[in-house]
Amino acid sequence: MNKIRITGGEPTVRKDFFDIIGTFEQLKVEMNNSGREITELIFFGHEQSESQSLTAFDIHNSYNSTDIDGIPFHYVLLQNGELQRGRPLGRIGEYSASHNNFSIGIVIPLVQDQKVSKAQSRSLNGIIKTFYDVWPGGQLVDGQITDESNVDI
Prior knowledge:
The chain has three helices and eight strands. By secondary structure, the protein is an alpha/beta fold. The strands form two sheets. The protein has a six-stranded mixed sheet with strand order 3-6-5-7-4-8. Strands 1-2 form a two-stranded antiparallel sheet.
């Protein structure tokens, strides 16, 4: 089934394009079949209001109004702990000036000044373990590092 539609000359993506990774084994297979060299797993926060529960589709639409070609992140870690696909893993991300080529970008929608949910925390542990199973020498990077930290993110 074609998940991208053309309407009025503009490609649009259906909501079901951004499906859920069912198991960590499925994530491991996807990582192994990425088709590109990956050395880093980068985590980003994405602010949402208390009344929101942002998904990959929502984030994709918000970036479509910018110069970025849709969602820049490979995965979205939802509030309920589910991992949702974003940008295909074989495509380079668009979230960092210096780390896009060799990284996987994961965004976590959060209400400002709140911590990740227990479900997100459990999933984070599984995602990190899966990443290190595939790339034992890989690195974890906090994508929220500021310019003042002297790290080029």
